[in-house]
User: Which sequence fits this backbone?
């Protein structure tokens, strides 16, 4: 059900533009606050626009949407969990 909501709310045809925007935001603004040796968690990652664009040694993504992993770059570790159940994610 959640995957159907996402497909209705976030159209696949919008993803390329969103990815370009997030690449610029991360490159020009956010990356300076995230070390390339950092461990990053993108909570409620959606389709991974942020976590795919940020550079970090370890990248985690968490979301309830079972469709999220197919949008994540290789190497992003996906956790099917909600914000109040983060015990499964290593420190």
Assistant:
């Amino acid at each position: 059900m959640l995957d159907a909501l996402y497909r209705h709310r976030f159209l696949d045809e919008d993803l390329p533009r969103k990815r370009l925007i997030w690449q610029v935001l991360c490159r020009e603004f956010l990356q300076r606050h995230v070390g390339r040796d950092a461990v990053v968690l993108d909570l409620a990652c959606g389709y991974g626009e942020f976590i795919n664009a940020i550079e970090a040694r370890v990248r985690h993504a968490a979301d309830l949407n079972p469709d999220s992993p197919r949008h994540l770059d290789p190497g992003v570790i996906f956790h099917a969990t909600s914000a109040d159940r983060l015990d499964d994610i290593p420190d």
